[in-house]
Amino acid sequence: MGGDYYDFFSLARDRIGVVVGDVSGKGASAAFYMAELKGIMEALARNELSPKRVLALANETLYSNIQRDNFITVVYGILDPLQKSFTFCRAGHTPVLLMRQNSDRVLVKEPGGIGLALDRSGLFSDTLEESRLTLASGDLLLLYTDGAIEARNEAGEEFGEQRLHEAVKQCRQLEPRDCIDCLVRDIEGHTGSASAFDDLTLVAIKMK
């Protein structure tokens, strides 16, 4: 049982809520906290709140329910196909990667924020930054958990951010599902026969 989580929510005006989370630890407790996070995110996202407000309220609830040696990292964003934008917050999570259709450069987007259930004072909200990305047709977004970059081969070498960025460049012209398959093949090609070190979640979004 693992602690990775992702979901999509249909919102008003054809917008889509997107969440990717990673619960610290493994086993039954991580799975339990993941299920709790899922319920909280479903309830809050459908109230049409901003990403920052959603995560601030989620933090208030989770802080009281999670043991102090656990925490959750999350990225939550709202994709607006009509406005061609993605507005998101990152609570201690891995960055959002953006590849423009007309560029060969991977842009790393990492607005500030600490993990959920680490603090119940004003520190969480004060450090949480909301970012808005303006997108064009063909632009690719990648949300992922740290299992993607921490995947290790038999020598103990991690896949790492640089390999992930290069893999994204190679896969960016594909449709999202095919892009994910391509990235997973690259990661598995690196790890070979080594045992899985962590859960792995990848979410690709391409603007039409």
Task: Describe what this molecule looks like in 3D.
A five-stranded antiparallel sheet has the order 1-2-3-4-7, with helices on one face. The chain has a four-stranded antiparallel sheet with strand order 6-5-8-9. Helix content is 34%, strand content 26%. It is of the alpha+beta class and 208 residues long. It is built from six helices and nine strands, in the order ββααββββαββαααβ. Strand 3 (72-80) and strand 4 form a beta hairpin. It has helices at 27-45, 51-65, 123-127, 147-150, 160-171, 176-191, and strands at 4-10, 16-23, 72-80, 85-91, 96-99, 106-109, 130-134, 140-144, 202-206. Helix 5 runs antiparallel to helix 6 (176-191). It has a single domain (4-206), classed as 4-Layer Sandwich (Phosphatase 2c, domain 1), CATH 3.60.40.10.
**Rg:** 17 Å
Order of helices and strands: EEHHEEEEHEEHHHE
Number of helical runs?
A: 6
The largest sheet has its strands arranged as 1-2-3-4-7
Low-confidence stretches: none
Helix fraction bin? 25-40%
User: What is the count of β-strands?
Assistant: 9
- At the fold tier of CATH, the topology name is Phosphatase 2c, domain 1
Assign the CATH architecture: 4-Layer Sandwich
Number of domains: 1
**Alpha-beta classification:** alpha+beta
**Biggest sheet architecture:** 5 strands, antiparallel
Intertermini distance: 35 Å
The name of the CATH superfamily reads: PPM-type phosphatase domain
CATH hierarchy class name:
Alpha Beta
Indicate the overall shape.
globular
Mean pLDDT: 94
Strand-residue fraction? 25-35%
